[in-house]
Write a structure and sequence with these properties.
The protein has 273 residues and is mainly beta. The chain is built from two helices and 16 strands.
Length: 273
Amino acid sequence: MKIVAILITLVLLTSCASSKETDYTASTPASQLVRTFLGISLTDSIDFIRWKLSMSDIKYTLECNYGIGKPNTNGFLDGGKKVSFNGAVKRDKNIYVLQNGKQTLKFAALNNNLLHILNDDNTLMIGGGGWSYAINNTNPSLNDQLMLVASKTTIKDSIAFQGRTPCGVPGVPKSEQCYKLKWYLVLYGNPAKNEPLTYRVLGTGYRLEGGRKGKWLINTDKNGKIIYDLLDENGKSLFHLLKLDDGVLIFTDEKGNLLVGDHDFSYTLNRKF
């Protein structure tokens, strides 16, 4: 009887552990795939969707606010519209599949702090210049782990990334009035030699300087993570971008920890061309 009691206790403890919920938040674009899952009309005019997601390995609760952004605020005109529901979660390794009736939406767990919405083919969904598809843990802890394996970079003449992030990017001047950072980054390379050459970055942090230019390097750590290291004019690291896949990069701190955003913006940049 003692053995049976112990086994039951272990099962209950395991069940409780697997059902522990984590809270996430984000603001994302409104792609057709996302609208279909949320039950939002494909003809509605939407600037962005704000997410409030609680999820475990087996279930989730979701509340979304969406609509046209109210100028000079982080809210919506007339308060926007809302949709909320809950459902089951299926997990396969680092991929979570959320079910809403007959509709599903897939998320890749980058680590314990970050999820990213996936396309049907399991590639990371690419956002735009305003919002990304990364979903942020509301109570994150420092984490340099990555549960994805990015493919080796093939150098092109130029690759451009864009996005908006919170103001906490290491190496970027920050003021008390800063609310967000706008980014436009172009990486130049030599395709014949498959070598990185120079970069140019424009955005809020360098507006007074007319942008920054320098060299960039591609480094691979012992765990296979691919890091784009952008150098200043003195050859010192300006900031680091971790490659998630060919379409999405994410800022890290000096120690390689992936930066976690908030309910307005994520720390990811989205490929433009």
